[in-house]
């Protein structure tokens, strides 16, 4: 099978010329491949995680142990996707002190950008979930992800509220399995 650059070319949804390793807040949505609802279920407007969902949650919380410059903000796991806000900071400011806890001093000059953070949560969680599913090497997450650069406090608070209310609004969610087809929810 040969590689066809026209068949495999994907249009980037990233903002052209933007440095995704720069300080700032980012809103991200990652979908399960095929839109499968395998992370738990919404019951009475609340998300009830299953074992896979708990793995994703643990991997989210563990990101700060791998990246000095990452501050975790709002986060929600839905049956077939996750939403989160991650804030990238200058890890060299404050000699490794972030929030209420101490972190080790940065080990190098390079700070990983948003694509690396997304890759990390996807690969860490997929590896552990696929071991349980006896599907090592299979894709668990959709190939791409949605991101939005949060430009001000008003937008940050609106997105936090959206994330917080997502389980209560699940039946109206565009990523709900019964929703009309959406190009974002790729198979």
Explain what this protein looks like in three dimensions:
It contains four helices and eight strands, in the order αβββαββββαβα. The chain has 187 residues and is an alpha+beta fold. The protein has one domain: 2-Layer Sandwich (Alpha-Beta Plaits). Strand 4 and strand 5 form a beta hairpin. The relative contact order is 0.21. The N terminus is likely disordered.
What about the largest sheet?
4 strands, antiparallel
CATH superfamily: Transposase IS200-like
DSSP helix fraction: 25-40%
Please, what is the average pLDDT?
82
Assigned CATH architecture: 2-Layer Sandwich
CATH first level: which class? Alpha Beta
Mind sketching the topology for me?
Blueprint: H1 5-8, E1 24-31, E2 40-43, E3 46-49, H2 51-62, E4 70-77, E5 81-88, E6 97-98, E7 101-102, H3 114-133, E8 146-150, H4 153-165
Antiparallel strand pairs: 1-5, 1-8, 2-3, 4-5, 6-7
Comma- or semicolon-separated keywords:
187 residues; alpha+beta; Alpha-Beta Plaits; four-stranded antiparallel beta sheet; two-stranded antiparallel ribbon; 26% helix; 22% strand; globular
Question: Can you describe this structure in just a few lines?
Answer:
With 187 residues, the chain is of the alpha+beta class. 26% of the residues lie in helices and 22% in strands.
């Amino acid at each position: 099978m040969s590689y066809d650059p026209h068949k495999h070319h994907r249009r980037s949804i990233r903002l052209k010329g933007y440095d995704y390793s720069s300080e700032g807040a980012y809103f991200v949505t990652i979908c399960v491949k095929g839109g499968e609802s395998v992370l738990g279920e919404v019951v009475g407007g609340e998300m009830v995680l299953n074992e896979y969902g708990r793995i994703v949650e643990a991997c989210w919380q563990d990101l700060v142990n791998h990246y000095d410059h990452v501050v975790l903000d709002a986060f929600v796991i839905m049956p077939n996707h996750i939403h989160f806000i991650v804030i990238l900071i200058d890890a060299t400011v404050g000699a490794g002190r972030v929030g209420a806890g101490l972190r080790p001093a940065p080990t190098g000059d390079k700070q990983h950008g948003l694509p690396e953070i997304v890759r990390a949560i996807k690969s860490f969680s997929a590896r552990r979930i696929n071991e349980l599913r006896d599907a090592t090497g299979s894709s668990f997450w959709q190939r791409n992800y949605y991101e939005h650069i949060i430009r001000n406090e008003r937008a940050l608070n609106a997105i936090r509220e959206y994330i917080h209310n997502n389980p209560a609004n699940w039946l109206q969610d565009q990523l709900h399995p019964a929703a009309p087809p959406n190009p974002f929810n790729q198979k």
